[in-house]
Design goal:
It is a single chain. It contains 12 helices and 18 strands. By secondary structure, it is of the alpha/beta class. It has 2 domains: 145 residues, Lyase, Ornithine Decarboxylase, Chain A, domain 1 (Beta Barrel); 225 residues, Alanine racemase (TIM Barrel), CATH 3.20.20.10. The strands form 2 sheets. Strands 1, 11, 12, 13, 14, 15, 16, 17 and 18 form a 9-stranded mixed beta sheet that branches. Helix 4 links the parallel strand 3 and strand 4. Helix 8 packs parallel to helix 9. The structure holds pyridoxal-5'-phosphate. Pyridoxal-5'-phosphate (PLP) binds next to helix 10.
Length: 402
């Protein structure tokens, strides 16, 4: 059975719309990254789990030896539930309350603080709990303004111009810091800007003895089409590894090197299968209307993201032009004017790169159920999330007499 036939079989078995994750692909990506940076003595990869928070995906990463990057206290709790040791979890939130930071501290996880107000409050609360600092390196990187988070006007991180103020707070409170962190954006296609960030971070670190780690964030780009650019790990590794080794030597300490990729690790492992409900011809366009929408798969509408769409029911069909649309009652386009194997009502379409920021961004808009998720593990398929039902939609509704 080939790959397409296997996907069709899963669509028949579990129904559509359906997310499928291939754990082999996740493992390959994890190993690729480990290998590319294997010359760095103390390397840690923390999976940025907001990309895909299914508990089974987290457990799989734990098994691979990965740590976890989390951005909410709920993600921290999911990580603990998946069995991660607290020190293998790093909490890197933005704009959260001091209560949420305190709660993370009560779990014993690593904490990255990204503003001076909370730094001061936390320092007064518990100066013995070492924290990391998120630096804003003032770099424009990322594939879309919505996912560029390291530029000067971004809400993320503490500006490197504010280091003197930060030092004053550390002195006043007695708080120790254990690491520095940056994350400049997703889908970075230009290694140069990433390297500028690395340089900024290493420069700052020089001034702070006894650091445990430096966390260089993520933003690794994966290809969304055949000829799309991707982050070339060997080029990146060549430019960073030596720099880091030299840094450690002058610093006089073997500092742990952290990356926290989300998309790189899971994007390509995912397939989203949808059923074609209707083919509709208008004066200008042939629409293929499918049994899903941006409530399940937001990236095309939110980021103008391009995801490959293939008609796996008709792999040898003649290529024709279609606009693939969802059933949500407003503009809802998966792919505009795409060349796809001839589509018939009832066909199953496969949308690629569906492992990262797809299910995790889904909603119940239009009162639709969120889809089920399946994981392929050791050659077998496992249902890892049930499709929702009407019960799920009304679970928290409190009916009053009206
Ligand atoms: C989202 C996020 C990541 C992961 O970004 P990718 O582009 O998916 O690799 C890493 N670190 C932090 C702090 C994040 O918020």
């Amino acid at each position: 059975m080939n790959h397409r036939e296997h996907l069709i079989q899963l669509a028949n078995k579990y129904g559509t719309p359906l997310y499928i994750y291939d754990s082999c692909k996740i493992q390959n990506q994890y190993r690729k990254m480990k290998k590319a940076f294997s010359e760095i003595k103390s390397l840690i990869i923390n999976y940025a789990c907001k990309a895909n928070t299914n508990l089974n995906i987290l457990k799989f990463f734990k098994k691979l030896g990965s740590g976890l990057d989390t951005v909410s206290i709920q993600e921290v709790e999911l990580g603990l539930k998946a069995g991660f040791q607290p020190r293998k979890i790093i909490f890197t939130p933005n704009g959260v309350s001091i209560q949420e930071i305190k709660k993370a501290a009560s779990f014993g996880v690593r904490i990255t603080i990204d503003n001076l107000s909370i730094l001061e409050q936390f320092g007064e609360y518990n100066p013995n709990y070492s924290v990391g600092i998120r630096i804003n390196p003032h770099i424009m990187a990322g594939g879309h303004l919505k996912i560029s988070v390291g530029h000067i006007d971004s809400k993320f991180g503490i500006s490197y111009y504010q280091i003197p103020h930060m030092k004053r707070i550390l002195k006043n409170t007695g708080l120790k810091i254990e690491g520095f962190h940056m994350h400049t954006g997703s889908d970075i296609s230009n290694i140069k800007s990433f390297l500028e960030g690395v340089q900024v971070l290493l420069q700052i670190a020089t001034d702070f003895p006894n650091l445990d780690y430096i966390d260089f964030g993520s933003g690794f780009k994966v290809p969304y089409t055949k000829n799309d650019i991707k982050t070339d790990l060997s080029t990146l590794s060549n430019s960073i590894t030596d720099k880091f080794k030299v840094f450690c030597k002058t610093y006089g300490n073997q500092v742990t090197f952290i990356f926290e990729p989300g998309k790189f690790l899971v994007s390509e492992s995912g397939y989203f299968l949808v059923h074609v409900n209707v083919i509709k011809h208008t004066t200008s366009t042939v629409f293929a209307g499918v049994d899903s929408g941006f409530n399940h798969f937001l990236r095309p509408m939110f980021y103008d993201a391009y995801h490959c769409i293939e008609n796996i029911s008709n792999p040898n069909g003649r290529f024709r032009f279609y606009t693939v649309v969802g059933y949500i009652c407003e503009s809802d386009t998966f792919g505009l004017n795409r060349k796809i194997q001839e589509i018939r009502e009832g066909d199953i379409l496969c949308i690629k790169n569906a492992g990262a920021y797809c299910f995790s961004m889904s909603s119940n808009y239009n009162s639709r159920y969120r889809p089920s998720e399946v994981m392929i593990l050791n050659g077998k398929d496992f249902l890892i999330r049930k499709r929702e039902t009407m019960q799920d939609l009304i679970r928290n509704i409190v009916e009053i007499d009206i």
